[in-house]
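During the no-cost extension, the postdoctoral fellow (Dr. R.K.) reprocessed legacy sequence entries with the updated structure-token encoder. One reprocessed record is reproduced below for audit purposes.
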Amino acid sequence: MESAGQADRLDEGVFATEAQRVCLETIAAMLMAAGHEPRRPAVRLPILTLTLAGTTVAIEVQPYDATETWVGVYSYVVTGCPLAPDLLLYLLRENFAVRFGVFAIAGAGDVVFRARLLGSTCTAEKLLAVVNEVVAVTTQWEQPIVENWGGERAADRLCYPDVGPPSPPQLPAAAL
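Re-encoded structure tokens follow.
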């Protein structure tokens, strides 16, 4: 269990805007109301993580402007994969096949799948649809990428150390 001091140190300076803080707290409340257990990674970033079906999903909230935010939902698919031209072409083509979201490269040999939502219009239904899509795509594409281009399934390598669940404010039932 985290102490109040731990949470205070973690949150100090994490948020660039009040809208960003409110959006992250709202998302945490939505996830908990849906029966999920979001965690706060031990990093000084506005991120929550969930583990669903063996896949770790990160949910970040970033400012769009002073009063608006965007919500990024992503998961690492493969790590340590050589970024061969045919892999990159494959990922571009597969971007056309997914319902929403895109494959992207997040470092040397890291393939991620991510989607974004506008914070002010992010409902529990939309958020959960995106989270489920990220999990489904990650699960569907991780093995074919490893088999054809190498690397390791990110689920086998990545670990997000956390400081415990967030403590969001109670939201009115209409907001959920």
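The first strand starts at residue 47 and ends at 52. The chain has five helices and six strands. The remaining legacy entries will be reprocessed before the final report is submitted.
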